[in-house]
């Protein structure tokens, strides 16, 4: 038995007769009664075993086990909060170091080329054949009129174009102590090799200009761009060589007259095949009054301005007309035509300067003396190219702003290096936006959790600490990703930090909300454990759903998808660890601050607590000192803690206000039948509109979207996309193919591309020749020359004459090639009717690779112009008429060739997708015929992802939704709940697609990532609500209201915090970020709130799953549980008022059968609160009020009473015998011990065992203290006795010394002593 005045925890007790109906109703609406499995699944399981409720045993057992583990974890964290916090900060800081090793991917092939897919295999094959960084670079300039309606097809616009381009191409840079100019970097046509004539080769090399694609090539003014910068002086020639007055044919005739020792016939054939004739001398002048305009110009004498539109129709030709045809679509943009398809007007002009690629430039200069002393390598070549392109762009800007160029026109430069810079900058982490977002998050959390009227119970410090914890957690998670080798990209830097922060803050609000609503009568050492016990499962469920969703989506082979999903999953795992392992330690430290009655944020202050003091009953004033200590004001109580008097302090926490608003207003409102019907109709309309919008979403991502606004680069891309839509394309043929024997298949393959509508045709409506056709034409020319020489007798089977032409001699050498290594020469082929090319146009297959070596070296201009890019490169074999060695080196079999095409009219994603499909079908058709091939070019690299983007997105969403379904199914063991959550998330994704259609956002890689993100973000809007619904008791309508009451405040705060963090993206200099990321993220938050807090609760109230706990007695609450069993402790009997023998005070007494009946059972006077902690920490005692009726008989007038009873009736005296009837009532607090299953106690009553252990430890400590005290007393008594004996010895010694000093006294004393000794 326990004394009536002893303190016991507040527990659900059987109602007292003095309890008011409102108090009973408040007690029965506590979480323990209406959300039993959410608060304490162990209690629900025990009630299920007793038969008081119905429900799922397995789900309750799993939740009870998880709650017990979370409670143990929370108690441990509360006990060692400081150590845990120190270790966590140390570990997280260590992971942050990994950010130094982060790799950022910006190239398209690194982001959107499907791993293991067709395009990746093609890119790998190209890289193996050509090497890395083999592509050429381009420097472009676009001219437009500031008035968009003005046409540029007039001489004035072209002359302004000439000024700008001419100034830009003359820029020079100084790097590595070397001056670099355009001629050192550009791509220029190849020239034949002339062995023994290096000085002439040098002259020709300086004369051959850079390849510049420009509309000026239709006019004489185009020669001003070709140079050379300084005219070349050649002895014996009348004029210096410069393209403004150079007529190649006249120069050749002049050289012939000088009779130089030089193979002029080779040079003449070279010029003839290349179409080099009069160059620019016979082209019209834009300004006939120019003094340098040649007299041979058709409008020089007339002085008429040429018809620019007519001249530009069908394109322009460079100085080598056979190989330099610039299509009209490449140099003129925004064209309009008349009825005869001739140009009428144009809105833009474009010039392209072709530069070498970095690898090509490195190889070109590797053996030159100019770079021997600087350690020439490919990196330095790339640096030189990049620096020159930047200066080119700066010069264009300078010319545009100068007064020398008309203000009516705009010029926009662009280069591939600029594009790479933009993509790299777009993928960089914006520290400014992240810091601003996190700062605003700190302010929002502080304002939300602060309590101005009660600084002790304010939680702003905990919220700020939580946001700082999430910040370092996000950094640590990204560092861990970098250590794992996961690369970063634009989605990693623009989305992931805000995603992790938003989801983490929502979990933090859920924990702080539970901390706020915790009752004040919870034992202080268990408060953190109970916070985790209640909300830890919700945090765990939502986080695991998110992690599984992202990991499932990471199975897709698209690199950008995979990287984003893996990083998001890892960051969510880090957030989960921080919220369950570190943040509770912060709550525990805040609990200590509250216990010390210190103010929030200003811990040095100790303001007065605003909580009203308890009214202590009169009976409680007589309690022991220990009870008085327990009755002190508990500053750790929360704003919702009930007061003994029934008065509650006004809550100044926004979460509490939202909870009350939901309970009193919002939940009853949305549960009205009219509101339900209206909401369901609205949901159906929204779903139908979303389905319609999803079908209207277009694919595509323009480069202008990822370029900062108000920059020249953005303006260039905008106009290039609007006016040109021009791209290069190559059809690549691979190895494992016999080129010599399958030439006919190659021609057929090439001719089939004429059916592709976007490929530019030549003037005859056909395609330009590719390398095999040019190779054949060269051989046919040689065959004709050979036939003429044979007919004239200059060439016979055994020899050739001195007057034979170079072409005839070269043809003779080719004719005698057999193609066999062991017998390479056979002169008998001359007279056997053998031909270099047969009548069907097929090159001799046996000597094919011998002929190829001769063509690639001796017709270099045609070989370069073919853009065949043959790999391996053909062998070098230079023809010399004096060389009588007939063997020609045989080239290696080809493994890579290119067939070039020009594409136009590709202004949108749909047209590009159509082109890709048609080209792919053609390639697959001929691959089935035995020709391994694939297309290559920018359209296939950038836009082929859209062919399978929607399929990949559907698979990713299906994997994510399936993972959420499995997670909810496993943790809740409720299939219908998992189905509802999954359908709700699918609806959210569909609605986001509809919003994309409304906002005009195209479906590309980034929106696809956001759609996958919508699944993870939507989990927080639905899973918490579903968990609250399943674990509540009552009808569906009541359970939906209870679920809303429990989760609305943290969900709303988390969503608003995430929206606030995402709003910082509006400060990005990339308009694409603001238009796409910001709008879609805010739309996701709004849609999630509407779906999760309006539609989903209504659906649950109509179609929701059954409750886990279904009471049998009361439909809407759990019946009052029976008191729990408690151990029987040995008790000491106290002596009565009349005394007793001493031994009875320490003897053990066994419980005796109670004679009196218990007529009234009541509870302790202290009020019972709606504590949400487990019933195991209570239900230990009840109060009984027994009535005892005692009859006493007194003889001979003596009175005798029984016990300490208080007489309440009159006494009757009759003679010598007096009979007295006494009725006594006593308040006795007793322990009721009920049978209990030891296994269930061990599984579900951890903190009871802990309290018992603590009690045993306290008793053991008291016994040790008593033993120590007794030992000290005994030691003191021994010391006192020792001192007394020592004092007695000193006294005796002193007396004996005094006796020896007095003989008489000594004698007398001796006599007495002897007498006494005799006696």
From TrEMBL:
InterPro entries given in the database record: HMGCR/SNAP/NPC1-like_SSD, SSD
Biased composition (Polar residues): 1156-1165, 1195-1207
Keyword set includes Methyltransferase: no
Protein localization: Membrane
Location of the SSD domain: 430-589
UniProt feature, compositional bias: Low complexity: 1167-1180, 1208-1225
GO molecular function, one term: hedgehog family protein binding
Stored PROSITE patterns: SSD
Keyword Transmembrane: yes
Membrane topology according to the record: Multi-pass membrane protein
GO biological process: negative regulation of smoothened signaling pathway
Gene Ontology CC terms, in alphabetical order: plasma membrane
Protein family according to the UniProt entry: Belongs to the patched family.
Protein name: Protein patched
Organism: Bicyclus anynana (Squinting bush brown butterfly)
Gene that produces this protein: LOC112052161
